[in-house]
Automatic annotation (TrEMBL):
The lineage of its organism: Bacteria, Pseudomonadati, Pseudomonadota, Alphaproteobacteria, Hyphomicrobiales. Transmembrane segments: none annotated. Keywords: Transcription, Transcription regulation. Residues 207-305 form the HTH araC/xylS-type domain. PANTHER family: ARAC-FAMILY TRANSCRIPTIONAL REGULATOR (PTHR43436), TRANSCRIPTIONAL REGULATORY PROTEIN (PTHR43436:SF1). GO terms for molecular function: DNA-binding transcription factor activity; sequence-specific DNA binding. Residues 292-324 are annotated as: Disordered. It comes from Rhizobium quercicola. InterPro entries: Homeodomain-like_sf, HTH_AraC, Tscrpt_reg_HTH_AraC_N. This is AraC family transcriptional regulator.
C-alpha cells in the first residue's frame, strides 16, 4: 500500500544515510545540525536535550521526560524548548531499514526579532477587526510532539540539502534557519518558544533555573537559594518548574546527577563510589539506591550492560548524550 508520508520522507532518508554511513551521532558542516543512524532497537539511554527541532526520516523513537512518554516517527517532529534531562530509546530500526534522524539546535537569540514581526502583524489584524488582545498563554511542557506540516518539512529538507552544497551554507543557512523558526512559531506549540524568549516571563526564569542546575548539578541544592537566584518565590518556582519540566527542581538535579554518573562509569570506567561522589552524592548507599530505581539495576551491573550494548551497536560514540 502506497504511503505518501513515506515517499515525502525518502529524500530526507537518502541524505541522512549518505552523511551517516555508520551507526552513531554525526556532526555536519551545517552549524547546529546533526544526523543520526541506528541499525537496531537500542536499550534506553540518557541525555540532556537542548532547545531543538528533531525529525525522523525512518524509524521511530520514544523519549521519556519525568513520568511522561513521547513517541514520534516520520510524520511528526519533536520540539524541545528547554534543557531537559530525558531517557530515550530507538523503538523501530533494523539493518535493512535503519533509524535515520536529524536534530537542529534552536538559537533562542533568533526568536525575538521574528516574534516582533508576528506580534506587530497580529496587532494590526486585531485593530482592523476591533478584537480584544489575547491573554498570555499558560506555561506548557518544555517538550512536545506535533504533526509535521508541509511548510516545516520543506524548510527542514532545504536545511539538509545544504550538506550537498557546503559553499551555500554561509549565505543560505541564516535564511533557512529563520524560516524554520518562523514555521515553529506559527505552529501548534509556538507558546513554548515564545515563553522562552520573553525575558520577564516565568518560563524564562525557569530556563535560568535549569541552566544553573545543569552547570552546578554536583553542588548541594537549597530551593530557597535557587528561587532567590531567579527572582521567584519558592512556591512559584516549584509550580512553574514542574509545569514546564514535568519534575521538581530536586528531581531535575537528581536526573542530571545520575545521568552524569552513568556516563562516567560507561565512558571513563569509573567505579560506582567514585562516580557517585563526583556528581555530588555523599552516601554510596543512597547513590546505589537511587541509581537502581532510575535505571533498573545497580550501578556496576547497569554500566556493564550498557557498555556491552554500545559495543554491540558498534557506534562511533555512545548514545548517552544523543538527541537524534
Amino acid at each position: 500500500m502506497f504511503d505518501p508520508s513515506a515517499a515525502r520522507r525518502q529524500p530526507f532518508a537518502e541524505i541522512i544515510a549518505r552523511f551517516a554511513r555508520e551507526d552513531g551521532d554525526h556532526a555536519t558542516a551545517v552549524p547546529g545540525l546533526t544526523v543520526h543512524r541506528r541499525s537496531e532497537q537500542a536499550v534506553p539511554s540518557c541525555g540532556a536535550y537542548r532547545p531543538s527541532f528533531a525529525l525522523i526520516a525512518q524509524g521511530a523513537k520514544k523519549v521519556m521526560l519525568g513520568h511522561e512518554t513521547y513517541i514520534y516517527g516520520g510524520s511528526d517532529y519533536l520540539l524541545t524548548s528547554f534543557d531537559l534531562p530525558v531517557t530515550s530509546q530507538i523503538v523501530e530500526a533494523s539493518p535493512e531499514s535503519p533509524y535515520l534522524g536529524m536534530v537542529f539546535e534552536i538559537d533562542a537569540a533568533k526568536i525575538p526579532p521574528l516574534l516582533a514581526l508576528l506580534d506587530r502583524s497580529a496587532a494590526e489584524t486585531r485593530d482592523a477587526a476591533g478584537a480584544a488582545s489575547e491573554a498570555s498563554p499558560p506555561e506548557q511542557r518544555g517538550m512536545s510532539v506535533a504533526a509535521l506540516t508541509p511548510e516545516l518539512e520543506d524548510a527542514a529538507l532545504r536545511l539538509l540539502r545544504l550538506l550537498d552544497r557546503p559553499g551555500d551554507i554561509p549565505a543560505l543557512l541564516p535564511l533557512i534557519e529563520q524560516e524554520l523558526i518562523f514555521r515553529l512559531l506559527t505552529g501548534p506549540h509556538a507558546a513554548r518558544l515564545r515563553q522562552l524568549s520573553m525575558a520577564e516571563s516565568q518560563s524564562h526564569q525557569i530556563g535560568r533555573a535549569c541552566a544553573w542546575l545543569k552547570e552546578h548539578y554536583a553542588l548541594p541544592l537549597r530551593i530557597e537559594d535557587l528561587a532567590r537566584r531567579v527572582s521567584m518565590s519558592v512556591s512559584s518556582l516549584h509550580h512553574h518548574f514542574k509545569a514546564i519540566t514535568a519534575m521538581s527542581p530536586m528531581q531535575y538535579q537528581k536526573q542530571l546527577r545520575l545521568q552524569e554518573a552513568r556516563r562516567l562509569m560507561v565512558e571513563d570506567m569509573l567505579d560506582a563510589g567514585s562516580a557517585g561522589h563526583q556528581v555530588g552524592y555523599e552516601s554510596p548507599s543512597q547513590f546505589s539506591r537511587e541509581y537502581a530505581r532510575q535505571f533498573g539495576a545497580p550501578p556496576l551491573r547497569d554500566a556493564g550492560r550498557t557498555r556491552r550494548s554500545l559495543r554491540g551497536q558498534r557506534t562511533g560514540a555512545p548514545e548517552l548524550l544523543s538527541e537524534g
